[in-house]
Design a protein that fits this description.
Layout lengths: L1 E6 L3 H4 L6 H19 L4 E6 L9 H5 L25 E4 L5 H8 L6 E7 L1 H15 L4 E10 L3 H13 L3 E3 L1
Parallel strand pairs: 1-2, 1-4, 2-3, 4-5, 5-6
Helix pairs in contact: 4-5, 5-6
Length: about 170
């Protein structure tokens, strides 16, 4: 079995508070990847970066003082250009999700996990590493054409780091 995980494809990361041209550019490819996965019977789950009004008081907020993905706000929503359907959504208060890893570990006959989304060098890499640690014998793939980061350079740096840790990177 294969699983597609869509990481933090939220309005604030696409064209909102922390949006980039690169993030905007991958939306059609991510939408197509989701559509193709569903047509092949591959389950799709999403993560959603989730902060609260006290974000700036958190460690993350002190290091990245840009309010974003506040629960219930428009920026927190997954892009309407992506078909969420009845997919499970994991709200996560930090870069990686232990809840997601526990869920994925509970799946029977899992052979491959594919990750797409935002931001390659923060939340994609964090979840890829958590999943690799939790499931070292499951193939983990990141589709670089369906990911973006703060800068093209940070995107490439994250892809290189994932390759070093035996995460399959495709384009």
């Amino acid at each position: 079995m294969k699983l597609l995980i869509v990481i933090d494809m939220q309005n604030d990361f696409i064209d909102g508070a922390l949006g980039t041209n690169e993030a905007v550019a991958i939306v059609p490819a991510v939408a197509e990847k989701i559509k193709k996965a569903r047509s092949e019977g591959i389950p799709v789950v999403f993560t959603r970066d989730t902060h609260h009004e006290n974000y700036l008081e958190s460690q993350e907020g002190k290091n990245l003082p840009v309010v974003h993905c506040v629960e219930g706000s428009d920026g927190w929503q997954i892009s309407s250009r992506l078909e969420v359907g009845d997919s499970r959504i994991f709200d996560k208060p930090s870069f990686g999700s232990m809840e997601l890893a526990e869920y994925v570990a509970s799946l029977q006959n899992l052979e491959e996990i594919e990750l797409v989304g935002l931001c390659t060098g923060i939340c994609v890499i964090s979840n890829a590493f958590i999943l690799k640690a939790k499931l070292p014998e499951v193939r983990i793939t990141v589709d670089s054409s369906c990911c973006a980061c703060v800068t093209p350079q940070s995107h490439e740096t994250a892809l290189s780091a994932m390759k070093l840790c035996q995460i399959n990177v495709i384009a």
